[in-house]
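Regression test case RT-17, inverse folding.

Input:
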């Protein structure tokens, strides 16, 4: 029975993702960075001791990405920093999906004044511009030394509303189904109807949005770290980029051009992988998009 369930899951979900070019390429890129974050720090040692004699060394076999202003190996920092970047991004995406799903399912099912209040809350978070909010958060929490979970929650606050709006629309289309009416007649309770009958129908849709959220969560979290929010982590890519552009002034030094370049390259690759994975998965599971292939 378990083998049959696994087989059905593989053919229904995994195989379509692997056969779509976009999702496959995105999965390969994202898997590479996952391996970098999990296994990389165990394989690549990190030496943060300054060595000004090797300042701004060009990429070589000894230093694949060259060295920074302090003579520290950039490749080592990127490998070790990938762990905090990936974990923060996935946590923020997960929190955003959980909050968005709860509010979206509740808003789609609950009517009356309570439903209007939920809709107003969602709308407020939809219209708040994210970048000014980012600056305000950075100003408020600069000295707070927040941990990864707290930062992920802050990022999720600005990401959940669009998902909640979309899920509420999906719930409106299914809440009048016969099995929902049957649960009501059996007095199964609001919680059971919302999160057993309705939410389970939205699992593929929620999964798609979780992957889609990765790009936004990554940009937001790196931006927050770039602005100095949270506990200081010298290997986090956002902080590394801050040092490269502002503290070390690498852009004004021809020898230091590679310093921000490799940081930005890894950020762009990771975001690009997330975009491809999200687009591919949406093409696989969205009938409207699949019909245009």
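Golden output:
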């Amino acid at each position: 029975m378990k083998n049959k369930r696994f087989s059905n899951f593989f053919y229904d979900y995994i195989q379509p993702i692997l056969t779509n070019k976009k999702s496959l390429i995105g999965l390969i890129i994202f898997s590479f960075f996952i391996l970098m974050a999990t296994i990389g720090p165990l394989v690549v040692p990190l030496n943060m001791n300054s060595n000004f004699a090797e300042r701004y060394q060009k990429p070589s076999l000894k230093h694949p990405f060259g060295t920074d202003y302090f003579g520290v190996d950039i490749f080592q920092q990127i490998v070790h920093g990938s762990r905090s970047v990936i974990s923060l991004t996935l946590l923020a995406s997960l929190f955003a999906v959980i909050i968005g799903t709860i509010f979206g399912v509740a808003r789609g099912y609950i009517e009356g004044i309570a439903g209007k209040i939920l809709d107003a809350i969602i709308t407020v978070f939809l219209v708040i511009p994210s970048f000014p909010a980012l600056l305000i958060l950075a100003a408020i929490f600069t000295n707070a030394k927040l941990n990864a979970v707290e930062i992920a929650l802050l990022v999720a606050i600005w990401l959940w509303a669009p998902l909640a709006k979309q899920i509420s629309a999906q719930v409106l289309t299914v809440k009048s189904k016969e099995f929902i009416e049957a649960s009501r007649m059996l007095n199964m309770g609001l919680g059971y109807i919302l999160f057993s009958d309705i939410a389970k129908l939205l699992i593929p849709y929620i999964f798609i949005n979780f992957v889609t959220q990765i790009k936004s969560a990554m940009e937001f979290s790196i931006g927050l770290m770039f602005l100095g929010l949270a506990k200081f982590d010298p290997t986090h890519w956002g902080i590394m980029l801050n040092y490269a552009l502002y503290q070390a002034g690498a852009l004004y030094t021809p020898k230091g051009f590679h310093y921000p370049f490799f940081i930005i390259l890894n950020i762009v690759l990771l975001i690009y992988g997330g975009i491809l994975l999200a687009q591919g998965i949406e093409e696989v599971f969205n009938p409207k998009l699949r019909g245009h292939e």
